[in-house]
Automatic annotation (TrEMBL):
Cofactor(s) listed: [2Fe-2S] cluster
UniProt-recorded name of the protein: CDP-6-deoxy-L-threo-D-glycero-4-hexulose-3-dehydrase reductase
CDD domains: fer2, flavin_oxioreductase
Top-level taxon of the source organism: Bacteria
InterPro entries named among the record's database cross-references: 2Fe-2S_ferredoxin-like_sf, 2Fe-2S_ferredoxin-type, 2Fe2S_fd_BS, Beta-grasp_dom_sf, Cbr1-like_FAD-bd_dom, FAD-bd_FR_type, Flavoprot_Pyr_Nucl_cyt_Rdtase, FNR_nucleotide-bd
Native organism: Wenzhouxiangella marina
GO molecular function (one): 2 iron, 2 sulfur cluster binding
Gene3D superfamilies linked to this entry: 3.10.20.30, Nucleotide-binding domain of ferredoxin-NADP reductase (FNR) module, Translation factors
Length: 346
């Protein structure tokens, strides 16, 4: 049987748009290969950014189990496009992201321009791009650093899209991470890296006038920084509250910058949340998503953006949906602080 004969037709329920999925190819990989951009982030089944509802047909999960879904979700017909493989023609209900489709994904070299330790475990890298090859991206997207042996590491872009010559990354040291170990031990300025991007569908929806809540955990602050700087540059003055959850006050590595935002943006609030506060701390403590709900129990009028570890995103998503935010107004980026991963299965 030919490869074409074994392909299955995938139909998007809302628009009727169709694409073909090859044998063994995930729905997400098939869609992106044909210029159809669906929501995604981690690509390994842990974040649920790519959650869809299966309306017709059957799928399997030969690569990784859909760990971000509850058993009840699977029984109700939900799936993850980043792991699901079509076993028949399908009709799926999932949002299509048209704005990202117009931005090309590129392979580029980048030179390490500067390195700054925000904390003993977090490094700020500024990468200079080739003069003739700028990286067009939406605030909130990420890049992959390409490594020997086909491995790659994903990092959110912390700089605003207007900063054309450089991109900024916030790197957390990970035990057993080959790339982060190199960053914190023997990386030197002027070193050349190879990157691919932009990637992901996490970005500010500018066609909304709703007040915004942004919630970050650890270096999940990085894509939110890019978003906030772009909003300030564009003169967007919608009410915006940033919740940033970390272990210790010393982990709030951008407080001086945040103070500048408070002076510039008339409707900006900042709520730091410490999981392990020192004696005398008078601010919010505990889980960052619970601090959001203590601040405002009803989220039905808000756009919510969140970025951080999968456990944080998963808990917050469930809690925020119960607090009234619509699925179409809840956007998130989830990433593991994990050892280096092999190439994505396409």
């Amino acid at each position: 049987m030919t490869e074409q004969a074994r392909a299955h037709r995938i139909t998007l329920a809302a628009s009727g748009r169709q694409f073909q999925a090859r044998a063994g190819e995930t729905l997400l990989s098939a869609a992106l290969r044909q210029g159809v951009v669906l929501p995604y982030s981690c690509k390994n089944g842990t974040c649920a950014s790519c959650r869809c509802r299966l309306e017709e047909g059957t799928v399997s999960y030969p690569h990784n189990p859909p760990t971000a879904l509850e058993f009840e979700d699977l029984g109700a017909g939900f799936g993850l496009t980043c792991q699901a493989v079509a076993e028949s023609d399908l009709v799926i209900d999932v949002r299509e992201i048209e704005q990202v489709a117009d931005i090309p994904v590129r392979l580029l070299p980048a030179r390490v321009e500067s390195m700054e330790r925000f904390t003993p475990e977090i490094m700020r890298l500024r990468l200079k791009l080739p003069r003739a090859a700028r990286l067009q991206f939406l605030a909130g997207q990420y890049i992959d650093i390409l490594m020997p042996g086909g491995k790659r590491r994903a990092f959110s872009i912390a700089s605003a899209p207007s900063e054309a010559d450089f991109i900024e990354l916030h790197i957390k040291h990970v035990d057993g991470g080959g790339f982060t170990g190199h960053v914190f031990s023997d990386m030197q300025e002027k070193e050349i890296l190879r990157l691919e991007g932009p990637l992901g569908t996490f970005f500010v929806r500018k066609n909304s006038e709703r007040p915004m809540i942004m919630m970050g955990g650890g270096t999940g602050f990085a894509p939110l920084k890019s978003m906030i700087e772009e909003l300030i540059e564009s003169g967007d003055e919608r009410p915006l509250t940033l919740f940033w959850g970390v272990a210790h006050e010393s982990d709030l590595y951008a407080q001086r910058l945040i103070e500048q935002w408070k002076r510039i943006h008339p409707s900006f609030r900042f709520v730091p949340v410490l999981n392990d506060p020192h004696e005398g701390w008078g601010g919010e403590t505990g889980f960052v998503h619970e601090a959001v709900l203590r601040d405002r129990a009803d989220l039905s009028a808000h756009d919510v953006y969140m970025s951080g570890p999968p456990a944080m995103v998963h808990a917050a998503r469930n809690a925020f949906l119960k607090a009234g935010v619509a699925e179409t107004h809840l956007f998130y980026d989830s990433f593991d602080f994990a050892p280096d991963v092999p190439p994505a299965r396409d």
